Amino acid sequence: MQEDLNAYERAVSRLVKVPLNDNEFAALVSFVFNVGVGNFEKSDLLRLLNRGWYEQVPVQLNRWNKCNGHVLGGLARRRAAEGALWRKREDEKGDFV
């Protein structure tokens, strides 16, 4: 599992061209772990982020909540948690899973 996680961390580090704080980085690693590096690499989310449009990331995350065109509750909750972690200030305390 740690080797897999390291691979997703490396992918985020390689593909994202703008600075990230720890929470932003963690949210993206969670997302890429779930959707895959290839999907992340060609996503609007990455394209917008690399333009510096940080505020678009939670919006884009929420678009990835479907399977075969149907919204899945588990994916919607996961994307909401990733979006909340993305927005969370580094000096705030709390857990996101």
Second-tier CATH architecture:
Orthogonal Bundle
Mean pLDDT: 92
Count helical runs.
6
Strands across the major sheet, in which order?
1-2
Q: Tell me the count of domains.
A: 1
Q: In CATH terms, what is the fold-level topology?
A: Lysozyme
Point out poorly predicted stretches.
Answer: none
Q: Sheet bearing the most strands, described?
A: 2 strands, antiparallel
| Helical fraction | 55-70%
Question: Would you give an account of this structure?
Answer:
- The protein is mostly helical and 97 residues long.
- It has helices at residues 2-15, 22-35, 37-41, 44-50, 56-62, 73-87; strands at 66-67, 70-71.
- α1 packs across α2 (22-35) and α4 (44-50) packs antiparallel against α5 (56-62).
- The model has no long low-confidence stretch (mean pLDDT 92).
- The chain has a single domain (2-87), classed as Lysozyme (Orthogonal Bundle).
- Strands 1-2 form a two-stranded antiparallel ribbon.
Outline the secondary-structure elements:
Blueprint: H1 2-15, H2 22-35, H3 37-41, H4 44-50, H5 56-62, E1 66-67, E2 70-71, H6 73-87
Helix pairs in contact: 1-2, 2-6, 4-5, 5-6
Q: Outline of this structure?
A:
With 97 residues, the protein is mainly α. It contains six helices and two strands; from the N terminus they run αααααββα. It has a two-stranded antiparallel sheet.
